[in-house]
Every structure is written in structure tokens, then in C-alpha cells.
Amino acid sequence: MSNHKGFTGKVPHWKTVYYESFANKLEAFARERQVKSWKSRKKIMELVNR
Q1: What is the pLDDT of residues 1-50, one digit of tens each?
Q2: What are the distances in angstroms from CA 36 to CA 5, 14, 20, 29?
Q3: Residues near 31 by Cβ (< 8 Å), separated by ≥ 6?
């Protein structure tokens, strides 16, 4: 059992497989929206695997 609540409470801890650094939150939020808009597992996996 993990220490997460809600939907993620039933799965093991998350593991970081990819990250990017940004100068400020505005840039980070813009990038997050971009990646989430892809809605394509293949495209996201390409990003993670490079």
C-alpha cells in the first residue's frame, strides 16, 4: 500500500522517468499543457526515451 490518496492510493509509488527544468512556473505550465495536449502515448514515449 502506498501513502497516496484517491485514485493513486491503490498503486505503488510513482517513479520519475523524465523531467525538464524551466526558469519559471509560467514556462513549466505552458510545457505541461503542450505535452498533455498530445494525447498520444507514442509521442510521449518518444519524448521519454530520447
Answers
A1: 556 677 767 777 778 889 999 999 999 999 999 999 998 889 989 999 98
A2: 22, 18, 14, 10
A3: 20, 22
Q: Give Cα 9 distance to the centre of its chain.
A: 17
pTM of the model: 0.64
For helices 41-49 and 25-38, give the axis angle rounded to 10 degrees: 130
Angstrom distance (rounded) from CA 17 to CA 47: 11
**Distance, CA of 11 to CA of 46 (rounded, Å):** 24
Phi, psi of 19 (to 5 degrees): -155, 160
Q: Is 47 helix (H, G, I), strand (E, B) or coil?
A: helix
